[in-house]
TrEMBL record:
<feature type="domain" description="Beta/gamma crystallin 'Greek key'">
    <location>
        <begin position="135"/>
        <end position="177"/>
    </location>
</feature>
<feature type="domain" description="Beta/gamma crystallin 'Greek key'">
    <location>
        <begin position="7"/>
        <end position="45"/>
    </location>
</feature>
<dbReference type="Pfam" id="PF00030">
    <property type="entry name" value="Crystall"/>
</dbReference>
<keyword id="KW-0677">Repeat</keyword>
<dbReference type="InterPro" id="IPR050252">
    <property type="entry name" value="Beta/Gamma-Crystallin"/>
</dbReference>
<keyword id="KW-0273">Eye lens protein</keyword>
<comment type="similarity">
    <text>Belongs to the beta/gamma-crystallin family.</text>
</comment>
<dbReference type="GO" id="GO:0007601">
    <property type="term" value="P:visual perception"/>
</dbReference>
<protein>
    <recommendedName>
        <fullName>Beta/gamma crystallin 'Greek key' domain-containing protein</fullName>
    </recommendedName>
</protein>
<dbReference type="InterPro" id="IPR001064">
    <property type="entry name" value="Beta/gamma_crystallin"/>
</dbReference>
<feature type="domain" description="Beta/gamma crystallin 'Greek key'">
    <location>
        <begin position="46"/>
        <end position="88"/>
    </location>
</feature>
<dbReference type="GO" id="GO:0005212">
    <property type="term" value="F:structural constituent of eye lens"/>
</dbReference>
<comment type="function">
    <text>Crystallins are the dominant structural components of the vertebrate eye lens.</text>
</comment>
<dbReference type="InterPro" id="IPR011024">
    <property type="entry name" value="G_crystallin-like"/>
</dbReference>
<dbReference type="GO" id="GO:0002088">
    <property type="term" value="P:lens development in camera-type eye"/>
</dbReference>
Amino acid sequence: MGDFNQTKIIFYEDRNFQGRSYECSSECSDLHSHFSRCNSIRVDSGAWMVYEKNNYLGYQYFLTKGDYPDYQRWMGFNDCVRSCRVITKHQGSHKMMIYERPDFGRTKMELTDDCPSLYERFHFNDVHSCNATDGHWLFYEHPHFRGRQYLLLQGQYRRFHDWGSLSPRVGSIRRITI
């Protein structure tokens, strides 16, 4: 997953970097043994995806270097963080094909850059499958990069459940450029 000496995230149980803390430098599928709640995070280096539940499930939050003194600062829905993974830097261009039906069916649209409003650009909001051929991407539930977030690494996603969503609704799409 890259050079772990260059990535570090610190989780704090209380707001404003108080209370018990846990420092992490690589992906972890179960953080619950290290802390019971998470109300602030400091990203010293690297880019991270943190997840509400164990094994990279539940709400997802993309974090880059900086201080997040309370969970609202990372657009958190609650103080629950149970797993995390390092997002490695992608060299080169970005390319993704999105489809209106599962298993790459019906109309396909190509993306090579950020899309602040899927509906304004393509006149649909439901993405049922996609193929991320180059780069790492984030799907957002609402336009202009708001709402729930979903990480898509390079690969094929045959159904919206494959990227962790309960619905095919996608409002905006952003490339991860770190």
